[in-house]
Design a protein that fits this description.
Blueprint lengths: L12 E3 L7 H14 L3 E7 L11 E11 L12 H9 L3 H7 L7 E4 H6 L3 E2 L6 H19 L10 H19 L27 H6 L54
Parallel strand pairs: 1-2, 2-3, 3-5
Antiparallel strand pairs: 3-4
């Protein structure tokens, strides 16, 4: 994660490796972090990224690498002394004293050196501002858990008597017998058809039971026979065979020949 690409607030900005860029972009981003009181954690930070050391909620890891150098013009590659002086003055006083001044080449301070100079260690959760905000977030669910719903007002004697009267009326209505409904048990006579002889079951009784009578069998005449074809006949002694064309060979057998015209 770079210095200029923060996660959504209020998550901390963890700078794994940032090689720097335009000082104006880093100045604007640093001021935004300052207004939001965001925490910035440094692993490897170079060039304009070192502006993060001016933030109140910045910390460094013991194995961090922070690299300082003079600012220069991106087009002419010449050192810009004004921007370099502004960059140097943003560092804490102990860091300025350790560096002395900025050069064109990198000057590197490790995380352990910066921690010894008074920078906060990211591995130690000793930031009072962040501790207070975390305590507030932890206490919020406790307040919600302690909230209990208000007790419903107790029902008076009149309310209970009204409920009992309604229940009694509903039960009496469910158990009461209507005037048009016959009292007592209802007897249903069911005839066992298996015990009744077949001779006693008439066609009228079957029709009354809703069953259709058995279909009557009728003899249907067969269609007439097809007349024999005159195209082919069996060989007859009186029938003369057609003469073959010279050089031709018969295809059909002798029984399948057209009879000569009479």
């Amino acid at each position: 994660m770079g210095y200029l690409s923060p996660p959504p607030a209020p998550a901390p900005i963890v700078v794994y490796k940032d090689v720097g860029g335009l000082v104006s972009d880093y100045e604007a981003q640093t001021e935004q972090y300052r207004r939001e009181n965001r925490e910035v954690r440094l692993h490897e930070c170079r060039s304009a990224c070192t502006l993060a050391l001016s933030l109140p909620n910045v910390c460094v890891y013991p194995d961090a690498q922070v690299k300082f150098h003079q600012a220069y013009n991106a087009i002419t590659k010449e050192v810009d002394l004004g921007i370099s002086s502004k960059l140097f003055s943003s560092y804490p006083a102990a860091v300025q004293a350790r560096l002395g001044y900025l050069t064109r080449e990198y000057r590197v301070l490790s995380g352990r050196e910066l921690i010894a100079l008074g920078m906060r260690n990211c591995n130690q959760d000793d930031n009072p501002v962040l501790i207070a905000s975390r305590r507030q977030r932890q206490q919020a669910p406790i307040a919600v858990a302690d909230a209990r719903p208000q007790e419903a007002p107790s029902a008076g004697p009149s309310a209970w008597s009204d409920i009992a009267r309604k229940v009694q009326t509903a039960v009496a209505g469910a158990l009461s017998t209507p005037q048009d409904q016959p009292k007592g048990s209802i007897r249903v006579a069911v005839a066992d058809r298996a015990r009744i002889p077949d001779s006693r079951i008439s066609s009228d009784a079957v029709a009354g039971l809703g069953r259709a009578p058995a279909p009557e069998l009728v003899d249907v005449p067969l269609p007439p026979r097809r007349p024999p074809s005159e195209a082919f006949t069996t060989k007859d002694a009186t029938t003369q065979r057609l003469a073959l064309i010279p050089g031709a060979h018969p295809i059909l057998g002798a029984q399948f020949v057209r009879s000569a015209a009479r």
